[in-house]
Amino acid sequence: MSACRRRTVLLAALWFLAGGESAAQPQPIVERVDVARVIIDVRVVDDDGRPIRGLEPDDFEVRIDDEPVRVESAFWVGDDPGNDASDGALARENLRSTEIAGFLEPADRGQLIVFVVQKSLVHSRALGLLRVMMFSDRLLAGITPADRVAVVSFDSHLKIWVDFTDDLDRVETVLAEEIMFGRPPVLEPDGEPSLLARLSQDEGRRTWEIQEAMQLLGEALEPLPGAKSVVLIGYGFGDLRVVLGMVGSRLDDRYDEARAALEAARASVFTLDVTQADYHTFEHGLQMVAEDTGGFFVRTYQRPPRRALERVANAIAGRYVLFTERPDVEPGEYPIEVDVADVDGTVLARSTYVAR
């Protein structure tokens, strides 16, 4: 007999022995245990973006609002050539046993990946994007048959090219050829998981700002279980401003709404800057969305594009899912810090925790 069942039986016996008029009208006894935990998706990678595996809960140090919180468990989710295939299934079963609706890892597939291609006719951007798209197959190198991939683009408005699919040949053709020179096909939702079921092509045609497009993408991904990877290939965003004679960019409330939607969806954004320049005004937007959501920013101008793409492909291959105790804080938004002790690597995690 389980401990929970024994406690229920003992409570029932005590109630019965108490007697009284209420004994003639027995009421059901309900024992309820509420367990509140925080879920944090974390990547620990080397300089080439390759995941550092084999970490345990005690290896992680997590602070929320500058206060340490206990890491109760840490599960690796992703492809691991060094382990038996059953290990991945065991990790997913452990995650499903937590019974936290909306955050569970899917039982019948791998991760969800969305490629977002930001197009421009400006020469330095268009040339850089063409160079990157020549090596787009490198982005697909680590994707497994269990993963599902979608492709969208943004120029004057949001365009949806491919709903979630395991047809990587189709994805490669769209990235390398069609997205640069063609038009998106008419698509309809076809089963789950589906991006189109929550973000239609008509809605995309009415979306004229990249920040709004990222917000809608986050909102469409949020109901789908598990963490997601978003790869943004583009030149960035922000509002131009001049301070002390220097030109820069500023992120406004539209960005804050996009960031909040992406974080709620457990979507980590990896950004590939295609602009052919050592520095430019709009790269700040790419840097911030990557830092805030647990991804990273890579320039494709300062290194061969294929190396930048391989670094991203390595990073999206897997992640840790941490379950921590919930901090005792008032409703609001609080900073998250995640570190790993005695490991030579970069730790990637979202930047905020929202207490409801």
Please characterize this protein's 3D structure:
The chain has 356 residues and is of the alpha/beta class. It folds into 3 domains: 1-33; 37-108 and 320-355, no CATH class; 112-315, Rossmann fold, CATH 3.40.50.410. The chain is built from 9 helices and 16 strands. The protein has helices at residues 3-18, 85-96, 123-133, 168-181, 201-205, 210-221, 253-264, 283-293, 305-315; strands spanning 37-45, 60-64, 67-69, 71-78, 112-118, 148-154, 158-165, 228-234, 239-243, 246-250, 267-273, 297-299, 318-325, 332-340, 346-349, 352-355. Strands 7-6-5-8-11-12 form a 6-stranded mixed sheet, with helices on both faces. Strands 4-13-1-15 form a 4-stranded antiparallel sheet. α8 links the parallel β11 and β12. α6 packs parallel to α7 (253-264). The protein is globular. Residues 1-35, 83-92 and 96-103 have low confidence and may be disordered.
Descriptive terms for the model:
single chain, 356 residues, alpha/beta, Rossmann fold, 3 domains, 4-stranded antiparallel sheet, 9 helices, 16 strands, globular, disordered N terminus
What order do the helices and strands come in, and which of them pair?
Elements: H1 3-18, E1 37-45, E2 60-64, E3 67-69, E4 71-78, H2 85-96, E5 112-118, H3 123-133, E6 148-154, E7 158-165, H4 168-181, H5 201-205, H6 210-221, E8 228-234, E9 239-243, E10 246-250, H7 253-264, E11 267-273, H8 283-293, E12 297-299, H9 305-315, E13 318-325, E14 332-340, E15 346-349, E16 352-355
Parallel strand pairs: 5-6, 5-8, 8-11, 11-12
Antiparallel strand pairs: 1-13, 1-15, 2-3, 2-14, 4-13, 6-7, 9-10, 14-16
Helix pairs in contact: 6-7
